[in-house]
Structure formats: C-alpha cells, structure tokens
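User: Predict the full complex structure for these chains.
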Amino acid sequence: MTDEATATEKPSDNPILFVAKPMLTAARQFARSLVRPSTVVYPFERLEDPAFRKEVAVAPGKPIGVGAIWDNYRGVHALNINTCISCNLCAFSCPDLCIDMVNVPGGDPKHPKKCPQIDYGKCSYCGFCSDACPEGCLTMTTRYELSTPKRAEMIYSPTRLFEIYRTKLPMNPIRLERPENEDSILLEPPLCIGCNACSRDCPTNCITMVDVTKPEFKPGEKQPRRIWKEPVINDSDCVRCGTCISVCPKECLFWGTRK
Amino acid sequence: MGGATLFSVSDTLASVLLNGLGSIFPQPIHGWLTNPDLILGLAVLIFGAILLAASMINTIVLIWWERKLLGRFMDRRGAMHVGYAGLLQNFADGLKLFRKNTFRPRESDSLGFYAGPVAYMVTSLIIFGILPISSGWNSGALPLSLLLALAIFSFAPLFIFVSAWSSNNKYSLMGGMRSAAQMIAYEVPLLLAVVAVVVVSGSFDLATIVQEQQNYWFWGPLFLALVVFVAGMLAEMERIPFDLPEAEAELVEGWNTEYGGMLFAFFMLADYLRALVGSILVVLLFLGGWTMPGWVPSAATSFPLAGIVWFMVKTYAVFGLFVWIRASLPRVRTDQLLRIGWNRMIPLSLASVFLAAALVLVRCLPVFGCLPSPGV
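Assistant: Here is the predicted structure of the two-chain assembly.
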C-alpha cells in the first residue's frame, strides 16, 4: 500500500484503528526517512551528484537528462577565448544588451582582442548569442549557481567565462532556425576611400584589399584623397558578422544579395 | 544533620562542603562556616543551581530531539548545521530570543502580561525539585511527592489564562479559555490513572513507586492506565493532538500570540519543561524509573551514573512517543476532546483502577512475577 493510498482513505470509525493507522503510516515514513530523507542538503549535495544521477532518455532523438538537469539547460555561458573571432555577433543579437565586447589580456597591445563580457543581472538566458556565434565558441552550460553578495560579481568577464569553459561542463550550443539565403556584404565603389578598416577589423580575414586602377586626372583637376584599393569579400569565409559595416567610415558597405 | 531522607543529594553535598571549606579557611571563619545549618542551606542552594542548569539543558536538548525526530517523520532532516547534527541550534535560537526586544500591546494589562509567563515558567521548574531521577538524585523524598508534582503541574492553565486575558487579544483570550476548559476533560481520568498506580504500589512517594517496580514495570499489567495517562499527559502538556489552546492554524499560536522575545522564550521553554516532566512522570510511574531490567550486565549497572543515564534514555524514548503521536494525529475539536475525556478515558481509567485492585489481591502474575513485599 502506498502512502497516497493511506492518505486518501477514509478515517476508520474504530477508535483504535483511528489512532493506530496514521501512527503506523508515520512510523513507516520514519523508517524510510532514517535510511535517506527526500531532502537534498543542497549546498553540500547536488542533484548532479552520482547519488542522484539517473540518466533518462525522454524520447528518441531528445537529449539525455542527468539528475534533475537536462543537457539542453541554458545556464551560465562558456566562452572559448581561443576560437573567439571577436565578431560582435553575440552582442548584436543580445535582446537585453547585457553583452559588452571588452579587451582580453594578452595579445597585441595595439590591437587587443575583444571578447564578450556578460552581465548576468540582465541576461534572460535566451541563447540568441550562442545561436549567433559563428564559431561555436559561446555555448551555454548546465551551471546554475550565480548567487553572489555583490552586484558587480554578476558581470562575468571573458576570462571568467573561459574558466567555465575549462570546467568541461556539458555544453549546449543553441542552434535556432534561420533563413536559408543569408545576405552578403556589398560595396558601393564610388564612396570607398580604401581605408583598410574593414579588412583590418574582419575577424575571419576574408576581406582582401585589391588595387584599383587610378583614373587619369587632368592637371589642376581636384583629386579625391584616397588610397587606390578596394575590399573584396570572400563570401565562403564570411561569417556575416557585420563588423566591416560598422567600422566603415564612409558607410559604403551594406547588406545585399550578390547577383 | 537531620532529615536524611529529605535532601539526600544535598546531604552529600553538605558533607563535601564541610570537609572542603573546613580545610581551607582559618579558625574563626572555619567555625562560622561549619555551622551545619549554613552548610545545609548552601548545599541546597548549590543543588538548586545544578537542578536549574540540568533541567534547562535537558529542555533545550529535548527541543532538538523533537526537531530531529519530527524532521524524519516528515521526510526532512531537522536542524543540522549549528553544532554536531544541529545540537546547538536551539541554544542559538535561545540566545537570539534573549537579545530581542519585548513589546507589550498598549491596551494590555502590564502585571498579568509580564507575570504570566514568569509564573508559568517557575511553576514548571518547581516540579524538578520534587522528581527523583535516580536512587541518589532524590532532592525531596516527600511522602506525597506524586500528588505535589501533579498539583503543581496543573497550575499551568491558570497562568496561561492570566497571560492570555492580559494580552487583550481575542485569539489569546480564546486560547486561554480553551486551556481552562480543556482541564475539565483530562484532569479526572489522568488522576484516576495515577490512582491505579498508587493502589498497586501503595504509596504516593515517587521513589517508593519506582522501588515497587523492581520485579516488573507497571506498564504491562496496567496498560490501560498507561494509555489513559499518556493521553491525559498529552492534553496536560497541550501537545498535538490536544493543543487546542495553541492551535497554530486557527488561533495564531493562541495564548502566546502577543508575546515575543524572552517572554515567548519563557513560554516555549516552559512548554518543553512540562513535556520533560510529563515524560519523566510516565517513566517513573510505568516504566520503572531508574531500575534496570535483569538482562543488563552488572558492569553497566554498577557504573556511577548508570541510573541517571538509563532514566534519561527512557525519558527521551517516551518523549519520542509523544513526537510520534504529534507527527501522526490531527488536532481534535473541543467537543471531541470532552467526549474522549468523559466517554472513553474515564471508563478506561476506572477499569484500570479495578484491575489494579485485583492485581494487589493476586500479587503474582504468570508472566511478570510478583510484587515486592507488601507495601505500606
């Protein structure tokens, strides 16, 4: 007889049974609880511990759960700094504006590498950043412990996110549905001054500056002040991060479909 | 020094003091200090302090014991972080209550509001001066100690009522009224159950009652009386299922609604002091007190504090029974309590008195054995 069965039974009219039955139920519960109470003593025990670990496949093709946490849980991010290309897409896609691109220590001091820093006070754990990440270096983990006495500690620097990456927690790269034909980056040649900013800032180095022929100018005619180069974008390497568009001083790069 | 039976522990203390003090101090002070009356007074004071400390510590540990047991009954763990297995949690809670400010409602009666908890606490403490814990720990071997203990024990509803009425709060007043009304239901069967024990043992002295149980404990032959006594004690201690005056859910803690800080701690402590006294009375009257069963090896029985340890083990086990009942049964209504008291418990207790009388006539039972030599 289960507990639920006894709990829903009508109390007995017999005074001895009226007292004895609930007491027996309580004693059974007591004996079971002596072995192992249902309480998880949380900071000292976790549902992820081997004692609670039970792997269950919900349905074919669906993820496998470990304990009470599923592998597709969207917890704290993990960032692989080494593969991050500083494309800014995570920060662009963030609906809460909680991602800032900040300098990471090391590397060239003149052109420092920028990686996402996440403010978990604002984050809504939507996973768009992980979805937008072209390199798969920003993923979400099953880590859920964020409480801290200081608000400033809610802001996780890239280094801290990299430490989480190195703990090898189950990673969950979020992949949302996206349209098939993505736009390419097009150039409006008359406006370009050949400044090299797009090529310099491109995270995947898919922009090469090629020489353009300098037109003949009559003597005395005013020449435009520019470098006679133009960017050529390799679409197969491009991750559509839009960095080049944002850095272009003349706004001559734009989204469009390549003919 | 007279009154050897009156203050046996105090007498021992007095002789220790007499020898100790006599050797330390020079003559004029020595002569004054070794005045037997002064020494006896000192010894009684010291023993009182020991009693106070022992009863308080036991009470607080008893709260821990209830919290741990109740936790397991509810599939929890109870207090577990402060001290070993949460043993110091209640000391910490007590300290917290001690530091808190106490407020008195503006329209309440000052005297009753402050005197009620103190009197409740003090009357609960006095009983410890009467209860024998072991053959050596018998501070007041009075010939009517059982009656005195029960009389002081039943003071409580008066003080509950005083403090409830002084609080000037309808819930408190209802709780206090219930406490006073509840007395009608349980006091008569409780005393009748005690009469059964008194008939068999032939004495009102708790120490004698325990000595009468050296061959067999009374709980077997007087099982009916035990049931009635435990039920009556539950009502007397106002514990679930008879906690009508407190009634957490409906009366917001009943008569201690308006109390906070140390005054609430007084009530809380006194509640558990009374629970401790109730458990001790059950052990004294029915479970043989400090007498050991025959199968216990003599090495264990000859240990100096064996009697007290054995007694406390039994006390905590009896309190565990109270916790078990608390975890299992729902609270009864006033009319149900009265019906239980008058329709069920009084006939049962009367039957147990007749059984006790028959037992005295027979004197020997097949399984249990014989009573010791005829009583007083």
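Residues 107-370 of chain B form one domain.
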